[in-house]
Each structure stands twice: as structure tokens, then as C-alpha cells.
């Protein structure tokens, strides 16, 4: 117990220094908190007004559909927490920077594992609540849930996620002795994509679930001992009881007991496996493969395009960046989720061009960022000085800033564009959009996405200057706000013009859409794309000349 007290004091000190050490840090923390709250409010309103408010069912079926929604949410929490625990285990437990310190102090390694496990739960909760909290709040708004429901969302989410996290880290400890870290990351990324897509389809089709299955789920939850003992049904009971104003004491008690049991089992397994796994992952076996020496043609070498060669080299390194695959998949999830929700939820089927415009807007915001994540090694994510030094080879090469700008743009744009057009073509074909409009959407996405790539790399480089390094929060805001603002002005304006009937009840959006016409929308979109590209290129070249590695 003394080790745990020491660990809590240590983490509290770290938290204090990073969040409210002085006035400057406190202002930064407050600004981040306000930005997060605003983002959550926006997501809640989007989910409620565009999804839940459109679900028309009889009063008798509300409770049944509510239980089904909670069932889907709990299953998603379990699967996502489990897969995330496996995929991030090696990075968070074996290759975490603070392990070099923790491994040397006189603390048993199974307690070190316990420290890292609690940290992992907190980290997992912070990353996933961004999606789950708006969904659960919007669901509560749909059924007019009492205040206690909204207050209990975060505590209940923490309790529910403990069991899948514990199962995931136990599976990772055992699995890391069987297969390599690379295989772990690839497999879990694929499984996570499949889980998220499955949830999107299931969520969009929830209102079409047969009443027979709904009745069976309700009957199962009405069995007190069965539903209280099984962790998944107990989790559903907790959420459902908070909505209807009940206090499921037994469900909470059994869920806590089972959670403590799984933590204890993981703690005991770590006595035998944690140190051995950590030791294995500290050594990298180098395999030297014999390659055929091919004589190069001097003429061909002279004509070879250095931009293409550099991009190919960067892509090869990005593919090997297994530790960041999960983060990249998470960003792509927004685009994939939108596609499957639009398709299976039958959204905008009467106006598929609006759906295509919204997909273009989402792609311009998220897809470039999703690709760029793969090009940043995990160990430099939180260190701006190391992040900047990844440009050192380009800086010493005889390349002008304009050519470096082209390298970075194409490096992010090409894979993001390929993924984006596959999604928009699939959506357009299913909804019967004409060939001419499909080609127009593909062409429009080309220019909009290229402008988004230019905006992102210029903002990223600007965030690495001395001024923004000293004001890290402002630099991070730039890399987020600029792509969002660009996406809204370029593709979002088209979507808003086409969505006049959908936003008629939203006063602000309705007033803006009323003044839009085809000429204004085309001029605004084209001007935004051209201005974004030219300004980004100019800023990048100027900053590149002054950047000191």
C-alpha cells in the first residue's frame, strides 16, 4: 500500500506541474479545457439534432430502444478498450520513457506494472470519452434523462472500462511472448477498424432492430441476479437505471468486485511475465539481408525526380511506424464512421450531393491529419525540439523551401486522397448520384484536400518556430483550428448551401444559409482553396529559410 501512496503523490506532483504550476500554465490549462468543452457541446448537438431527433418510434418502444442503444454502447466500450489495451501495451508499458526510471527504483516490478496499468486506464478514458460522452449525453437528451444521469456518465465509464482494460493487458503480456510487437500493432489496428465499422453499421440500424430481440434483452435485464452478476448486463443496468431514476446497488457492487478481481489477476500474472516482457523489448535484433548490387545508369540517376524518391522513402518509414498506426486509425475513424452512418442510416438519401459535400468537409479536416500521424515517431510527439529535428536532413540538402513544400504536400495528400475518393465514390454510387456529379465531387475533393494538406504542413512548421515553441498551446491550436476553419469555408460552405432544409430550425445556420447562393458559394470555396494554398506556400518558404534545426 505504501508503494501505491508514493505513486499517487508522484503523479499528483507531475499533474500539478503540468496543469497549474504557475499563472501561465493555469491559463493554458483553462484554455484547453474551454476548447474541449466547446467541442463536446458541438458534438452533442450534432448527434442529437441529426441522429436522435430523427428517430421516430412509439412511446411503448422508447425503453426498449434505449436499452438497445446502451447495449451497443457498452459492447463498443468493451471491444475498443480491450483492443486499445493490447495495441498500446508495448508503447505504454515496455517502451514508456519513465520506465527507465521506474525500473531502477527499489519498487517490485509487479507494483510498477500496477502503476502503469492505472495510468493506462486514465489515458484510455481521456482518449475515448471524446466520442462516448457526447453520444451518451445526446442519448440522455433524447429521453429527457434526469441530472444524475449526466453526472454519472464519466464515473460509470471509468468503472465499466476497467475489466476490458485488464483483460487486454493480460492478453498483451502473454501475447508479447508469442508474436512480435509489429504483428501486435498491425493486427489490433485491423481489428479496431473492423470494430468501429461494425459499431457504425449497428448504431445506424438500431431503430430497425426486431421487437423480438428488444423484448429478449429487456427480459434478460429484468432477471436481477443474472443481469447483476454478468459485467456487460450490469453495465447496461447502471446506465439504464440512472435514466429511469433507480439505484442498482447490486449491479454496482458485483461490477466493482469483478473489476477488482481482474486487476488482482493481472497483478499476479505481472509477477512472472512483466519483467521478462520488458527485457525482451529492450533489445532489437538486427538482421542483415544480402541485397543484390544493381549498377545504376548515370543518365537515369540524373533524371530521377528527388521529390518522388524522397516521398517513397518517407512512406517506407511511415509504414514501419507501427506505434502510431492506432492513432492514425482513430483519426480515419471519423471519416469511415460518417460514411457508414450516412449509408446505413439512410441520411441525405434525398439529397446525396449534400452527403458528398459533408464527407468532403470531414475528409479535409481529419484525413490529412490521419496520414501525417504516421510520419511522426511516437517518441517525439511530446518533444517539439525532437519534432523539429526530423527536418534536419531536408534542411542540409540542396533543396529550396518551395521544393520541400511540394514534398510535404504530396507526401500527405496522395494517400489521404486515395482513401477519401474511395469513400465518396462508394457513398455516391449507393445513393444513385450521377456520373457527372461523382466526377465533380472527385475533382472538388482533389483541390480541397490538396489545400488542406498545404494548410496543415504550413501550420505544423509554424508551430515549430521559437515563438510557438515558447507558447506550445497556441502552436497546438494553430495546427487544429486552421484545418477546421479551412474545411468549413471550402467544403462546408457548399454543404451549408445544400442543407437549407435541414438547418431551418437552427437559427444561426439558417440565417447564414439564407444569404448563400451558387455564385457566392463557388466564389467562397474557390477563393478559400487558392488563398489557402498560396498563403501556406509563402508562409512555409519564409519560415523554412529562418528555421534553425
What descriptors fit this protein?
single chain; 549 residues; mainly alpha; 2 domains; 24 helices
Describe the model:
- This protein starts with a helix and ends with a helix.
- 79% of the residues lie in helices and 0% in strands.
- Mean pLDDT is 76; it is low at 284-300.
- The protein folds into 2 domains: 59-282, no CATH class; 321-546, no CATH class.
- The chain is globular.
- It contains 24 helices and no strands.
- It is an all-alpha fold and 549 residues long.
- Keywords: Membrane, Transmembrane, Transmembrane helix.
- The chain crosses the membrane at residues 25-48, 60-79, 99-118, 125-143, 149-171, 183-204, 249-269, 324-344, 356-380, 412-430, 436-459, 471-499, 511-535.
Amino acid at each position: 500500500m505504501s508503494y501505491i501512496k508514493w505513486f499517487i503523490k508522484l503523479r499528483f506532483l507531475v499533474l500539478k506541474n503540468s496543469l497549474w504550476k504557475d499563472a501561465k500554465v493555469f491559463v493554458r490549462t483553462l484554455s484547453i479545457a474551454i476548447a474541449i468543452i466547446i467541442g463536446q457541446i458541438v458534438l452533442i448537438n450534432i448527434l442529437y439534432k441529426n441522429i436522435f431527433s430523427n428517430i421516430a418510434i412509439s412511446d411503448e418502444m422508447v425503453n426498449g430502444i434505449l436499452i438497445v442503444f446502451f447495449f451497443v454502447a457498452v459492447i463498443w466500450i468493451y471491444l475498443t478498450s480491450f483492443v486499445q489495451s493490447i495495441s498500446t501495451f508495448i508503447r505504454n508499458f515496455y517502451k514508456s520513457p519513465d520506465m527507465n526510471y521506474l525500473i531502477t527504483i527499489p519498487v517490485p516490478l509487479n507494483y510498477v506494472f500496477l502503476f502503469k496499468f492505472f495510468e493506462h486506464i486514465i489515458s484510455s478514458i481521456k482518449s475515448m470519452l471524446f466520442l462516448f460522452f457526447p453520444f451518451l449525453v445526446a442519448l440522455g437528451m433524447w429521453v429527457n434523462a434526469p441530472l444524475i444521469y449526466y453526472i454519472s456518465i464519466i464515473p460509470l465509464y471509468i468503472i465499466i472500462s476497467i475489466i476490458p482494460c485488464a483483460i487486454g493487458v493480460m492478453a498483451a503480456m502473454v501475447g508479447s511472448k508469442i508474436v512480435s510487437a509489429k504483428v501486435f500493432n498491425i493486427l489490433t489496428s485491423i481489428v479496431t477498424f473492423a470494430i468501429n465499422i461494425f459499431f457504425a453499421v449497428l448504431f445506424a440500424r438500431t431503430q430497425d432492430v426486431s421487437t423480438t430481440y428488444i423484448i429478449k434483452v429487456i427480459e434478460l435485464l429484468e432477471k436481477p441476479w443474472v443481469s447483476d452478476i454478468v459485467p456487460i448486463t450490469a453495465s447496461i443496468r447502471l446506465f439504464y437505471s440512472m435514466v429511469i431514476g433507480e439505484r442498482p446497488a447490486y449491479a454496482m457492487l458485483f461490477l466493482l468486485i469483478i473489476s477488482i478481481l481482474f486487476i488482482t489477476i493481472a497483478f499476479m500474472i505481472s509477477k512472472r511475465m512483466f519483467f521478462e516482457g520488458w527485457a525482451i523489448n529492450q533489445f532489437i535484433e538486427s538482421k542483415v539481408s544480402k541485397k543484390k548490387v544493381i549498377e545504376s545508369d548515370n543518365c537515369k540517376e540524373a533524371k530521377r525526380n528527388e521529390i518522388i524518391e524522397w516521398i517513397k522513402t518517407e512512406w517506407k518509414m511511415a509504414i514501419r511506424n507501427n506505434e502510431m498506426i492506432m492513432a492514425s486509425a482513430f483519426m480515419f475513424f471519423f471519416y469511415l464512421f460518417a460514411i457508414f452512418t450516412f449509408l446505413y442510416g439512410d441520411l441525405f438519401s434525398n439529397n446525396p450531393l449534400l452527403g458528398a459535400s459533408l464527407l468532403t468537409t470531414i475528409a479535409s479536416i481529419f484525413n490529412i491529419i490521419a496520414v501525417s500521424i504516421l510520419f511522426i515517431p511516437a517518441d517525439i510527439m511530446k518533444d517539439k525540439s525532437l519534432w523539429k529535428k526530423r527536418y534536419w536532413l531536408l534542411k542540409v540538402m540542396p533543396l529550396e523551401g518551395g521544393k520541400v513544400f511540394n514534398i510535404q504536400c504530396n507526401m500527405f495528400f496522395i494517400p489521404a486522397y486515395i482513401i477519401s475518393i474511395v469513400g465518396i465514390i462508394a457513398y455516391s454510387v449507393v445513393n444513385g448520384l450521377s456520373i457527372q456529379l461523382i466526377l465533380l465531387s472527385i475533382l472538388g475533393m482533389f483541390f480541397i484536400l490538396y489545400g488542406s494538406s498545404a494548410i496543415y504542413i504550413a501550420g505544423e512548421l509554424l508551430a515549430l518556430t521559437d515563438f510557438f515553441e515558447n507558447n506550445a498551446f497556441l502552436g497546438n491550436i494553430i495546427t487544429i483550428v486552421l484545418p477546421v476553419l479551412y474545411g468549413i469555408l471550402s467544403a462546408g460552405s457548399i454543404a451549408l448551401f445544400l442543407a437549407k432544409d435541414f438547418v431551418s430550425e437552427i437559427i444561426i445556420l439558417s440565417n447564414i444559409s439564407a444569404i448563400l447562393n451558387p455564385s457566392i458559394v463557388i466564389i467562397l470555396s474557390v477563393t478559400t482553396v487558392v488563398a489557402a494554398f498560396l498563403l501556406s506556400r509563402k508562409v512555409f518558404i519564409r519560415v523554412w529559410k529562418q528555421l534553425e534545426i
